[in-house]
Design goal:
By secondary structure, the protein is of the alpha/beta class. The chain has 16 helices and 12 strands. The strands form 3 sheets. Strands 1, 2, 3, 8 and 9 form a 5-stranded parallel β-sheet that branches.
Length: about 400
């Protein structure tokens, strides 16, 4: 039985230090320990650059040392991504490139040696043709995507025995199994593996079980009191590979070229039919998200115009934190409690990103930004007003 497991490590750059320590203690150290204790185990990781910065601020240097050893041993493969988890399809190309390059720089800073990144993780698995072409141009060769990117309006699911190629960008594509990934994978896979092992169903050995989820699922968001994760890695017939290893061994003649649909890992066929593949991050009917993006785009445009401003560095420092996908996601009011997630409404988390966005505008020294600053303040106050009006009227009872 072949298990291809992709884990996404991420905490917002502007989150409280307690959250970093909690993620480390409940999830990250557990995963590192698991790999150290099982030398044949191989996973593919995406670790956001901003998280590595925060781990460094906490003084957890041992995390880098132990992770380096796992990478050198071939047990962990790292992928590229955007340093601050920006929602790339809705950002200008210049910002997409900047965040990808900065992520590479941060990985090399903390993990050293010659990291060769082949795969790329789009934050929220949010695919767009424009972003895919940028990723390809920057030297990456494959993406992991959600099933909606394959099925689009039809809802059809990809064949797990195949690797695909994006006809537009020529990037190779691996699709995660959505059903397995939205649950707690060990709970789903362990009984299945035992059954397959007992019945000695050899053909199943050729069908990979492909899962991709947040690393925080393994301890922080799901406690796993019976240690199903530790049990599954002891299954004798279990095989694991990095995604790149699997792709490289796959016959080129069997790779199928297809059209990839704009989507995220939370999209569904109905969203895509309605032309709203990114609804959780931007819905024209969601006033908070509309004004957040107005403020974000204003801040981005000012950054392009006033690159020589003496406070430009502080503008960037706040901007990238405010642009994190979480800022917009927490305003979506969606219920993910059935898939180990929260109710996606949090005034405090929206305001955390909002404060950084407005400070990115306030940072400019140039007097010519005065009119734009006043406009930004109007957006800021409008968002504040809507957030708390909606909270007390609509969300207080939930």
């Amino acid at each position: 039985m072949l298990w291809l497991n992709f884990l996404h490590f991420y905490q917002p750059a502007n989150i409280e230090p307690y959250n970093i320590r909690e993620a480390l203690n409940k999830s990250y150290w557990r995963l590192i320990r698991l790999l150290e204790e099982h030398p044949n185990l191989k996973f593919t990781f995406n670790i956001s650059g901003c998280l590595l910065d925060r781990i460094n601020e906490e003084g957890k240097i041992d995390f880098f040392v132990r992770l380096q050893k796992l990478i050198r041993r071939g047990q962990v493969e790292l992928t590229g991504s955007a340093a601050y988890h920006g929602f790339l399809p809705l950002l200008p190309a210049s910002e997409v490139v900047r965040q990808i390059k900065e992520n590479e720089q941060i990985l090399h800073k903390y993990l050293g040696f010659n990291l060769k990144l082949k795969g790329f993780f789009l934050p929220e698995m949010a695919y767009s043709l424009a972003v895919a072409k940028i990723v390809k141009k920057m030297g990456y060769s494959w993406l992991i995507l959600g099933e909606p990117a394959y099925g689009g309006r039809t809802g059809k699911r990809p064949d797990p025995r195949l690797i695909y190629r994006d006809q537009a960008s020529q990037l190779k594509i691996i699709f995660r199994n959505r059903q397995l990934s939205l649950a707690y994978p060990p709970d789903q896979l362990l009984p299945l593996f035992k059954k397959l092992e007992k019945n000695k169903l050899n053909p199943q050995d050729k069908i990979p079980f492909i899962t991709a989820s947040d690393a925080e699922l393994y301890g922080l968001r799901h406690e796993d009191p019976t240690a199903e994760l530790e049990k599954i890695v002891k299954v004798k017939s279990l095989r694991t590979m990095s995604f790149s290893q699997y792709i490289e061994k796959f016959p080129v003649s069997k790779i199928e070229t297809i059209k990839i649909h704009p989507s995220s890992w939370e999209s569904n066929s109905q969203d895509i039919r309605r032309g709203k593949p990114y609804r959780l991050w931007f819905d024209p009917k969601n006033k908070i998200q509309v004004y957040l993006w107005k403020l974000a785009n204003l801040a981005l445009s000012l950054g392009e115009k006033y690159k020589k401003d003496k406070n430009y560095q502080w503008h960037r420092w706040h901007l990238v934190r405010g642009l994190a996908s979480c800022t917009f996601w927490w305003a979506s009011s969606q219920d993910f409690s059935k898939v180990f997630g929260p109710y996606a409404w949090s005034p405090q988390d929206i305001e955390r990103g909002l404060e950084d966005l407005i400070r990115s505008v306030r940072s400019f020294f140039d007097f010519r930004t005065k009119r734009d600053k006043l406009l930004a303040e109007r957006y800021y106050l409008k968002i504040k007003k809507i957030i708390w009006e909606e909270h007390w009227k609509k969300h207080w009872k939930k």
